[in-house]
Every structure is written in structure tokens, then in C-alpha cells.
Write a structure and sequence with these properties.
mainly alpha; two-stranded antiparallel sheet; flat
């Protein structure tokens, strides 16, 4: 049975994203989970919230290329996955904020 840490690492690895254990463990603990606990269905939403919490910061990181070695990930796919996660979890999408309608009637 996979741990919560392994579940999140597997989800992120689809997009070639590899977080350090310390960084991932901190994000997991921020959601009141224990990284080494076995993954269970009731931990699904908090685990997905961990992923949603780390993606915006990851998109700020530059692509790294050195010699014949490069580290890149598909930013459009990661952004789409993040937007989908936000919709599923009912949390605000920080990368694609919805426009706000404001009344300017007081100016007339």
C-alpha cells in the first residue's frame, strides 16, 4: 500500500515534477497529514490540495539546461491540471483568476 508521500510523488511524476522530500513533507504537513501514513480514500482531497498548493510555485521555476541535460515540464499541461484540481476541490484558481464585475454606478 502506498503512503501519502508516494501517492503525491506519483501524481507529480506524470508531469516530470520532482520535489525534495523536505519540501513535499512540509506541504503534506500543512494539510494536517502525515507523509508516512498509508494512503486511504479519506486522505484523497487533502492530498490533492497538497498538489494544488505546490503547483503555482513550481511554475515560477525556470527550465534548466546544461550541456545535453535539461529539466523541463509541460507548463500548459501542469496549468490545465491545476485548474482542474481547483475546480474539483472548490478552491480559488490563483493562476487563472476569474474577472470580477464591479459596479461603477457611483461615478455617474
Amino acid at each position: 500500500m502506498a503512503t501519502i508521500r508516494e501517492f503525491i510523488q506519483a501524481k507529480l511524476s506524470r508531469f516530470n515534477i520532482d520535489l525534495s522530500e523536505a519540501e513535499l513533507d512540509a506541504a503534506i504537513q500543512d494539510q494536517a497529514l502525515t507523509p508516512s501514513d498509508p494512503y486511504a480514500p479519506e486522505a484523497s482531497k487533502p492530498a490533492l490540495k497538497v498538489i494544488a498548493s505546490v503547483i503555482p510555485e513550481l511554475l515560477l521555476a525556470p527550465d534548466v539546461s546544461e550541456g545535453g541535460y535539461s529539466i523541463k515540464f509541460d507548463r500548459a499541461a501542469v496549468t490545465a491540471y491545476y485548474s482542474w484540481l481547483c475546480g474539483e476541490l472548490g478552491i480559488p484558481d490563483k493562476l487563472n483568476p476569474q474577472p470580477k464585475i464591479r459596479s461603477k454606478a457611483h461615478l455617474w
